[in-house]
Specification:
single chain; 61 residues; alpha+beta; 3-stranded antiparallel beta sheet; 3 strands
Length: 61
């Protein structure tokens, strides 16, 4: 199991995997940073993102 660490920076929050700071996400809140981390590194967490709300064009960008 992996541990997600969240730190407060001067202007935002950063979330990263404990021991793997190269796997990170950031955001205006701790929750946004965690969401950015998981969304940006879904393959590491073993999840897929089913973005049904997006058009096919949006999914390609």
């Amino acid at each position: 199991m992996s541990t997600i660490v969240v730190d407060k920076r001067p202007d935002d929050y950063i979330a990263y995997l404990d021991g793997r700071k190269e796997v990170w996400g950031c955001g205006a809140s701790a929750y946004e940073a965690i969401g950015n981390l998981v969304n940006g590194h879904a393959h590491i967490f073993g999840v897929t993102m089913d973005r049904r709300y997006m058009t096919e064009q949006q999914k390609r960008t």
